[in-house]
Amino acid sequence: VFLSVFYNISYWKMGQDRELRRRDRTSQNRMVLDNLDPWTEYCVQVFITTGRTPHPSEPSREVCEKTGSE
């Protein structure tokens, strides 16, 4: 069991550089991505780090979804 788990979340517009936007080290297991463009496809990838090791996990598979009108 890990006492501290941090989620490292990267997201970017489909077809653009993955480093377009990045949010690092949140302890929350849910996050709302705000200020996204409407009708735009974004991709998200997550990996975790723990207090026991400085090395991150393998990244999750990329998940891509399209935003709605607002």
From TrEMBL:
GO molecular function: cytokine receptor activity
One cellular component (GO) term of this entry: plasma membrane
Matching InterPro entries: FN3_dom (IPR003961), FN3_sf (IPR036116), Ig-like_fold (IPR013783), Interferon/interleukin_rcp_dom (IPR015373), Type-II_Cytokine-TF_Rcpt (IPR050650)
Matching Gene3D superfamilies: Immunoglobulins (2.60.40.10)
Domain Fibronectin type-III: from-to ranges: 1-70
UniProt keywords, alphabetically: Receptor
UniProt name for this protein: Interleukin 10 receptor, beta
Protein source organism: Nothobranchius pienaari
Organism lineage string: Eukaryota, Metazoa, Chordata, Craniata, Vertebrata
